[in-house]
Amino acid sequence: MTDTSIARRSHRPQKASGLNPKLIPYVLLIPGVLVMAALLLYPMIQAGIMSFQKVGIPQIRDVNPRPADWVGWENYTKIFENDIFWSALRNTLVFAFVAVSLTLIVGTGVGVLLQQLSKRVSTVLIVAIMFAWAVPPVAQGVIWRWLFDAEAGIVNWALNLLPDFLSNALFGRADWTGVPWLNEAYTVYIALIMTVVWASFPFVAVSVLAGLKSIPNELYEAARVDGSSPWRTFRSVTYPLLKPVFAVLTILSIIWDFKVFSQLYVLLNGPTNRLAFNLSMFSYAEAFRPPPKMGSGAAIAVILTIILLIVTAFYVRQMIKSEEVQ
Amino acid sequence: MTTLTNPQVRRARDSARTRKKLRKAALNATAAVVFVLAMFPVYWMVSTGFKTNDQIFTTEFIPFPTSFTFEHFDRVLSEGVAGNSIWLYLRNSAIVALGTVAVGAVFSLLAATAVSRFRFRGRTSFLITLLIVQMVPAEALLIPLFLSVKRLGLYDQLLGLIVVNVGLTLPFGIWMLRTFVAAVPKSLEEAAWIDGASRFTTFWKVLFPLVAPGLVATSIFSFITAWNELIFALVLMSDPSGYTMPVALQYFFGQRGTDWGAIMASSTLMTIPVIVFFLLVQRRMVSGLVAGAVKG
């Protein structure tokens, strides 16, 4: 029901404010729309245009800047010929896939666990995982860089505890002291996955718990009466009812993990090891490492945006179809 | 019936009870493992900040800082890093985050009221835009905004960072606040209307107090986002006196080894306000984040 209908029903004369009630929502939206247009939409279009231009020092210097040259698809063709792009793309995709899956699995597990625990124990555990969730991304990177430190890191200390034969059989080494984790791309991403999963599973767990609590108990009783096994109950009762929650959690995790920057920046000590770049870091390095190649950086950002939109298009459609946007 | 003395039944009952006990023990043990895994990294950050250097740089595992010291906290607060005390960076971060929240709260409340209290042309497109802009990576905005900020003379100024952060946090702020506004029953406003309250009075005296808790939760979310933001601060601030905490932390990683005690002390200082806020609004934040999905 809109405000106009109320006004009519109550026989109230229109307020003498002179504002047509139909215009009110638009007036309320003005500041928000202006901010988004100026700070999000306009830059997005600009980035699209810049990806076809050559923008370097002559174009961005304060004194007497030169207009940008139109180079057509050159930025894109150069990027596709660059090996670093392909390794960055692979790093981005593999990392997102592994991190999102692990986050959802661990988070769901902990969410189900929280529901089974007694009130007191579950409150304590929620507060504990809240700590992991609340740590700022930069501090997450700092902490895990320290845990994975070659000499004084706890990870190497813990691996040294493994019996020598087991460690030899699994990893081909028994002595872990001094083994660097953050030099090679492959091991950097192991550290990054640990960091990101550790920090993001609590959100999934708490959301799943909230979802579980909203399912009426009678459904579980009915399932029990019908002799359903716990796994069957999860598959036939819990999962279908929590599907919308999982859809939102998946899309949010994908969006966050595709764009991970702060943690990687700290673990890598800035854009140093090019083989360990993801697309975000690659774009940043192209645009802001001397010599700045802003056009090329913009092109990488455009590619990343398109990938994200494709990956999430399905879920966005789901959300638009459901009542979310109604 | 003599159920109580029937040994078979008693055995069955006992085994059911043991199974229940075992299950509870297993659940609590799993909870303990999760507790340790979640808390240990945070604990390790804080405890490293209180250890002396010879307890930090060792291959041994020293669970408790037996050499408890405030030396690292003292050092980062007095000497600091990159030429300034950590206080300055904390202050900069607070200015940026509070400025973002002050502007963002007003704008998002207006927009959220519009989309959840009115039906109008363009409403659905607006909501879809909100969803899509959240997918755009910061890097896509970074380069054009860097150039715009330079052109507007806001480079190296906290104001520039505030403006950018308002843009970054607003779409999600509206999205989250929208559900809190929608949760307030419309009949309350209608009653006020019929009683002759003006539109503004209705908004201010009826809707606003009821939405206030949601507004606090949304504001805290924006505060945390702005407080944690790294990449724009990295690019828009070149003078160390304008660094925010995430940028300042990078300067502890030196060419010749890292001062881990100092960086852990600083990270702890940066983390404390966020954890306090999180624990305050934990429940509402979850309901806002997965809004709509859970209500079923």
TrEMBL record, chain A:
Transmembrane segments: 23-45, 93-114, 121-139, 186-212, 233-256, 298-316
Every ABC transmembrane type-1 domain range: 89-315
Domain of life: Bacteria
GO CC aspect terms: plasma membrane
Primary site of residence: membrane
GO biological process: transmembrane transport
InterPro entries membership: MetI-like, MetI-like_sf, UgpAE/MalFG_permease
Protein topology in the membrane: Multi-pass membrane protein
CDD domains noted in UniProt: TM_PBP2
A Pfam family the protein falls into: BPD_transp_1
Keywords: Cell membrane, Membrane, Transmembrane, Transmembrane helix, Transport
Cell location: Cell membrane
Keyword Membrane attached: yes
Family affiliation: Belongs to the binding-protein-dependent transport system permease family.
Name by which UniProt lists this protein: Sugar ABC transporter permease
Organism listed in the record: Herbidospora galbida
